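A favour between colleagues. Tell me how you read the following sequence-structure pair.

===
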Amino acid sequence: MPGSHDCALPPLTLVLGGARSGKSRMAERLVIGSGRPRFYLATAEAWDDEMRERISAHRHDRGDGWQTVEEPRDLSPVLSRMPPEACVLLDCATLWLTNHLLAESDLDAAIASLLHALDACPAPVVVVSNEVGWSIVPENSLARRFRDEQGRLNQRLAGQADLVVAAMAGLPMVLKGCLPEGVL
């Protein structure tokens, strides 16, 4: 990409994509490429054996060199404690939103708190989120509400981020900003 040699990882990066699009792997490479100590902020909750297996596989695929913090909903205190020399991977905003929906949280307040915490975080943050708006209209009201809220959250994250990358078939599509050289 022309001019990419002038780009460094910005304070906030958003990596979007569908299921198995390569978004998490792409986000991991961005964080690793920063050369900073790596923190993995996990929002998944292991409610069943299948999810426990997914979490274990994700952890194995990620490899060593990560400090993992598990927090399904209250990300503000965790983000505020990140060392400025670190780089944070928040994986993922979709599960974070799901956790809040299922807990019947005040979504407006939760999203406002998250956006403020991302802005105030002393370390760069790479957020992974699912793009769910290209699918069919869900059949039930909770699923439709989730799809709508996820789209709104992604728009707000993208508006605040300096770098937005979409992953499709493992390939990056830069939607906003520029990629650091040689990272992807």
